[in-house]
Amino acid sequence: MARTRLYRHGVLTAEDFPITESAAHLRDPDAVVWLDLAGPSQRELAALADELDLHELAVEDALHPHERPKLHEYDTHCFLSAYAVRLDERSGRLVTSELAAFLTERALVTVRPDDSFDVDALTARWDRSAHLAGNGVGYLAHGLLDSVVDSHFEAVQALDEQIEALEDLVFADHPNEREVQRRALALRKSLVTLRRVVLPMREVVNALMRRDHSVVDESMFPYYQDVYDHVLRASEWTESLREMVATIRETQLNIQGNRLNLIMKKVTGWAAIIAVPTAITGFYGQNVPYPGSEQSWGFWVSTAAIVLLSGWLYALFKRRDWL
């Protein structure tokens, strides 16, 4: 179902009107229109493109999924592609919501391939900053970008908490190595996906803030600067989290190596202790007589030697923390 809004002189005057009425509203020089299309067909979007004079390449990008976040400028409008994200905390997988937008002089058209993007949260954001509605399309585009960037921030924060939980798993007394590896791989994949949608947003917001664009006027410039700062922070946070996941994986391998060395040290210590009675009792299997063979004192001497030497080795290794 299409969502629509009409602003006149910075005031919301109509909502959820048919898209066919948008052309009549745009004849009013004081009107600003928002049109939202969820899963439109090529014919529907082509008809809207004829009314708003949208470039065919921009329309093609809006219909094809998995576009890179970008901002392209055409003669009559700008085309924006971006992704909102959220983290599935159970699986550690990042879920993306693709969004395309056309920014004309007095209209913002958003195109979504599905209903995964939260449009109600977007309209609520616009309502909270209704005092800026007089800035027209710049006000609408700011709310859209702010909503997208906030989803990036929420995802980064959730990933940070997941990585902290992963650290606790690594240093647990009895860690589940397979679970740690699975979570680390899932988080690393999510960070790679997040990086692909966050880093290009710097170019998008920075391009909109250029003085030669008519979208952002002087009164909206500080708000776009705030969004740009959030984009930079999300980008830097994403990069640091990628390094943290790599460090955690290296730490896990080091801990596994240390545990293996400790086990080998203990096994070697016990092998040295066992070698003493093995060497002494081995004399019983020799065909050559030795002192004390076939004598009762020889048995007791060998037994005492086994006990004393084995006990001495055990005490020595224990004192040196080898056992």
From TrEMBL:
Stored SUPFAM superfamilies: CorA soluble domain-like, Magnesium transport protein CorA, transmembrane region
Bilayer-spanning residue ranges: 267-285, 297-317
Membrane topology annotation: Multi-pass membrane protein
Subcellular locations according to the entry: Cell membrane
Signal peptide coordinates: none
Keyword Transmembrane helix: yes
Protein name: Magnesium transporter CorA family protein
Species this chain originates from: Saccharothrix mutabilis subsp. mutabilis
